[in-house]
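Many introductory courses stop at the sequence. We go one step further.
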Amino acid sequence: MNGQGPPDAGERDLLTAVYEGDEDAVVGLLRLGVSPEAVDEDGQSALYAAAVSDAPGIVRLLLAAGAAPDRLSAGSDLPLCGAACGGHTEVVRALLASGAVPDAVEEFGFTALTWALRCGHPAVTEALLAAGADPNRPGPTGEPPLVTAAHRGFPACVRSLLAHGAGSRGDALAEARRWTRLDVASELRAGLGRAHGFGGEYVTRRWAEGVAVELVRDGNVVAGVDQGTGHAEIVAVLEGALGVG
C-alpha cells in the first residue's frame, strides 16, 4: 500500500502486529511480502507506530525490509521525531543507523533534537548530536538549542550541546540564571492555568532531577507539564564554559 485507499488484509495484520509488539508476527508477514510501508486508515505508518511505541526490534525489522526512515507518517510526523519525543534512545539509534537524517524537519518546523531538548532526554540528545545534528539549528520559535536546554533545566543536555560546539552561551546563561530565581512548580502551575483556564486541583510530583504538575478537574487530568530543576548546575557549567564567575 502506498497511502491510497484502506489497508488490505495483510497490511492490517502487520499494523496489528506492530501495535501489539509481536515481533514474530511482523517477521512472518514481511516474509509473506506484506509492505513494510503499510499505513492505517488515518495514514499512520507502521514504522512510526513502532517508533513511538519504543519497539526497536520491530523498527529494525521494518527498516531491513525497506521502510524509508524519513517517510512522513500521516503526512506530518517523522519516526525519528516521534522516538526522540518519547526518549526512545535505541529506536533513535536504529533509525539513524538506517539513514534517517538527524536534522530532518517535520510539521511546524520541529526536528528530533528540538523534541529531545524540550522533553529533557539527554541520551537521545547525545545520539542525535553524535550523528551530526546541528547544535545551533534554531527550533520552530527561533530559540537556539542551548537556550532551550538551559530553560528546560537538564544539565546533561547542556553538556552535550557544549561538547558539540553549541553557541548562544551568554543567552543560555541568562536564561538559566533567570530560572534559579523562580519556583519551578509555581511557574508550571501558572502556565497550565493560562493554557487551560484557572480552577481545579494541581497535583505536583517531584523527583531528583525535576518536577511535574498535573491539572485535575472533576477527577480527570486535564493537562500536565514537567521540567528539570538543574538550573543552578547549568549556571555553573555555562559560567565555566564562558570563563566567568
